[in-house]
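Figure 3 (text version): structure tokens given as input.
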């Protein structure tokens, strides 16, 4: 939860929150893995131009109308992904990869503005005119430079093939056609069918663009000297990470890249088939692992200090000076708008903060109209760990809610716990939140440190168990260690190997 949320007012109806919570239960659809991100925009001045490659410039072609489209969207993209991530060696790494790919692209004169996004989401994308974006979350998951190159070459292919322009034109035409159909045919069944067909045509067009970008991207990988099989390998890695991080693997759509880039098995096989033109797997191309690891050593991992931290079943925010626990079996997602947690039996939790502008009693605040379905006779004033608080119950649609609010100085913090109607877990779940919420002392807040990717060298006597035991920020240490190091169940390690761990 970003710190600025504490200054935001606004209402939260249980009906609206129920929709949000249902979305989280169904896989947090349309939401990324990003934590509550700071929207503070910083200036970005890439200064790295790889030698013997086309220059990677900060300012794309001024007279290119495609660049104007990208420029209009750039500030919104940066803000929605938590600002820009500044690290000179990581910038050099991404610029080196992009430069090598540019040299073999279909338009080597195209210049690119590369932005590293300060988000733990796993995503990369491009805007018309050469605006390329990659999140630090994607860099943390990648195993080598060739996997990052696979993602960037795919996005660069969208730029060189003018897919952004084509998509916008197609969408504009589809919007016009849909409006005409709806106005002429109103709610007639034929009108609805025409609208549905239009959406399907647009979706099919987008899939064709993705496949075309795959083909171009794999070719660029091979011709730039990278392992051409990296595209298929990283698609598999992202799918594995999505399964690892999902409460409901069958419904999860929270992986940004996989949400916007279909990951059907046939697409992975297509990437492998095109890679075979460069030779058998494992015999061609450079993976670039050593200089990749050098470039991401120390990379920020997961939540940033401005967002607060998730540590197992605990949320801690040093700048706000607060912390609370969720019950065992729950997964916390630190989102831009709030902290969400989902657990067994469709139980869901939302936590946020608002400015206390009217300084009224908390019982009056609960009753002030921001909770629909409120049961007024359930409102009670209480004290939680020395803090003024109040609770109430509400009911809307098929959900029962516990509402708990607390005051610290000029801020009101709000918990909303939702369960399907009649579920007995409502009170025990809400009670864990209430009893665990407290202020942090200055020493606790000062001791909080962000997690980072650390590159270590395997020493004699090290094992998967001993190395993964050093991992922080997860209860599933061995599983995550394997994922970020592309290790299979049968993989082994030996002295001298370089591995990633997550630690402070």
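Below: residues designed for each position.
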């Amino acid at each position: 939860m970003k710190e600025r949320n504490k200054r935001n007012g606004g209402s939260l109806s249980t009906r609206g929150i129920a929709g949000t919570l249902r979305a989280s239960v169904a896989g947090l659809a349309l939401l990324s893995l990003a934590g509550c991100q700071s929207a503070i925009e910083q200036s970005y001045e890439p200064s790295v131009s790889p030698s013997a490659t086309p220059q990677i410039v900060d300012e794309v072609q001024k007279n290119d109308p495609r660049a104007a489209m990208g420029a209009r969207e750039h500030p919104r993209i940066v803000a929605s992904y938590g600002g820009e991530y500044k690290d000179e060696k990581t910038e050099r790494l991404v610029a080196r990869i992009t430069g090598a790919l540019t040299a073999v692209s279909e338009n080597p004169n195209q210049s690119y503005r590369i932005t590293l996004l300060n988000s733990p989401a796993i995503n990369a994308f491009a805007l018309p005119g050469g605006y390329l974006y990659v999140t630090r979350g994607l860099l943390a998951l990648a195993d080598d430079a060739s996997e990052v190159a696979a993602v960037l070459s795919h996005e660069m292919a969208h730029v060189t093939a003018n897919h952004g322009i084509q998509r916008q034109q197609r969408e504009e035409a589809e919007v016009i056609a849909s409006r005409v159909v709806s106005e002429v045919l109103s709610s007639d069944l034929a009108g609805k069918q025409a609208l549905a067909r239009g959406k399907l045509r647009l979706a099919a067009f987008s899939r064709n663009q993705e496949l075309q970008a795959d083909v171009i991207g794999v070719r660029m990988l091979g011709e730039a000297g990278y392992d051409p099989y990296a595209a298929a390998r990283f698609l598999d890695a992202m799918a594995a990470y999505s399964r690892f991080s999902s409460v409901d693997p069958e419904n999860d759509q929270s992986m940004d890249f996989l949400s916007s880039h279909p990951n059907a098995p046939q697409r992975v096989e297509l990437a492998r088939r095109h890679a075979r033109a460069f030779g058998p797997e494992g015999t061609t191309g450079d993976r670039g692992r050593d200089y990749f690891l050098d470039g991401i050593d120390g990379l920020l991992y997961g939540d940033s200090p401005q967002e607060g931290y998730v540590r197992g079943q605990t949320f801690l925010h040093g700048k706000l000076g607060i912390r609370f626990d969720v019950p065992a079996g729950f997964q916390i997602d630190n989102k831009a708008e709030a902290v969400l947690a989902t657990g067994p039996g469709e139980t869901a939790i939302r936590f946020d903060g608002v400015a206390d502008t009217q300084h009224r009693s908390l019982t009056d605040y609960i009753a002030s109209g921001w909770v629909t379905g409120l049961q007024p006779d359930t409102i009670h004033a209480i004290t939680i760990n020395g803090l003024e608080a109040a609770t109430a119950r509400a009911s809307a649609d098929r959900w029962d809610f516990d509402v708990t609010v607390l005051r610290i100085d000029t801020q009101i913090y709000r918990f909303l716990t939702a369960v399907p109607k009649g579920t007995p877990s409502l009170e025990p779940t809400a009670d864990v939140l209430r009893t665990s919420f407290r202020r942090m002392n200055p020493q606790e807040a000062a001791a909080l440190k962000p997690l980072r990717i650390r590159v270590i060298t395997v020493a004699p006597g090290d094992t998967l168990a001993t190395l993964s035991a050093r991992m922080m920020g997860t209860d599933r240490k061995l599983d995550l260690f394997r994922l970020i190091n592309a290790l299979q169940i049968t993989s082994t390690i030996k002295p001298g190997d370089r591995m990633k761990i997550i630690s402070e």
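The two ends are 20 Å apart (CA to CA).
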